[in-house]
Design brief:
- It is a single chain.
- This protein is of the alpha/beta class.
- The chain has a single domain (4-281), classed as 3-Layer(aba) Sandwich (Rossmann fold).
- The chain contains 12 helices and 7 strands.
- The chain has helices spanning 4-11, 15-18, 40-54, 72-80, 93-101, 139-143, 147-161, 182-195, 204-210, 224-240, 242-249, 251-270, and strands at residues 62-66, 85-90, 107-111, 124-130, 162-175, 215-222, 273-282.
- It has a 7-stranded mixed β-sheet.
- Strand 2, helix 5 and strand 3 form a beta-alpha-beta unit.
- The longest helix has 20 residues, at 251-270.
- The N and C termini lie far apart (49 Å).
């Protein structure tokens, strides 16, 4: 799993830096849903709407957001579902401080991984995780086929912290196939080594194997091209703010994010990697009737 240091390597550049290319309302650092949206802000809100539906969030629920970022989903939930309590988990110190600064009585956040989060006294009614699942198993874990054990442990943990009717709204990037070209190998290596160290992408079969006898897939959306469009939008905003970024953070950081966005966009456009949004319901025990 990506360590706290791995996460902070990427996410703790500066909160103001990310604000220069992410949407202004939610500061959401993951794929938006572009089915009806014409601008980034609406695409991110539509993403939140779908994931809340997938997790069956209702008014008055207790919801946990695993990998909460800067709290965009959390604010969306408290704004759209009255009397709802939302708790976030993050490994980024700067994100933790940003969410804490909001001082909303319906929001709370912990600076810890899901493995270190203790089972709460009041169990959660809904679980949502957007863009965190990719960080749960490392390249080394995949090399020795340990990733499915880690994913199974995660879904066991989800059951331990939630009610018997709780659903999961999961959004994750997945690896779709082996690379077809040197360019795809180069792009993927840059993303794994330079952008998200300590992380590796799951496959759909990894997820399917990990939820056996725990959860069943009740709905799924495959929107890799939506991520390509989101990355393109981020790149445009990055370029618009190029002078500010170079003045504040240096040419190297601007170049790094420019290469990162281009490489990731190509990977989604070719189908080498994809983006899945999944609704998971608990598997109900099967009773075998005998005479």
């Amino acid at each position: 799993m990506a360590s706290k240091a791995d996460i902070e390597h990427h996410y703790d550049v500066d909160n103001d830096f990310f604000a220069l290319f992410l949407d202004k309302k939610y500061r959401a650092y993951s794929c938006g849903v572009w089915k009806k949206a014409c601008e980034l802000e609406q695409a991110q809100e539509d993403k939140f709407k779908r994931l809340c539906h997938y997790a069956n969030v209702t008014q008055g629920d207790h919801v946990i957001d695993i990998g909460c970022g800067w709290g965009g989903l959390m604010h969306y939930i408290v704004d759209h579902y009255p009397n709802t309590q939302v708790h976030g988990l993050t490994l980024s110190t700067r994100q933790f401080e940003y969410v804490n600064h909001a001082r909303n009585q319906n929001l709370s956040v912990d600076l810890c991984s899901w493995q270190d989060y203790l089972v709460p006294e009041h169990k959660f009614d809904s679980i949502i995780s957007i863009g965190a699942f990719e960080h749960f198993a490392s390249f080394e874990d995949h090399a020795v086929s340990r990733q499915r054990e880690i994913y199974r442990t995660f879904f066991d943990w989800c059951q331990s912290i939630s009610t018997s009717e709780a659903q999961i709204g999961l959004q994750t990037i997945v690896i779709s196939r082996a690379p077809n070209s040197v360019s795809e190998v180069r792009d993927s290596r840059y993303l794994l080594n330079k952008v998200f160290p300590g992380s590796a992408l799951p496959s759909i079969s990894d997820i399917q194997a990990a939820i056996i006898d725990k959860y069943e897939i009740s709905a799924v959306s495959c929107i890799g091209l939506d991520y390509a469009r989101t990355l393109n939008e981020w790149k445009q905003r990055l370029v618009i703010n190029k002078a500010i970024i170079i003045e504040r953070y240096g040419q190297n950081l601007f170049d790094h994010y420019s290469i990162y966005f281009d490489a990731a966009q190509r990977c989604f456009e070719t189908g080498y990697i994809d983006l899945y949004q999944v609704s998971l319901k608990r598997v109900k025990p099967v009773r075998i009737l005998t005479k």
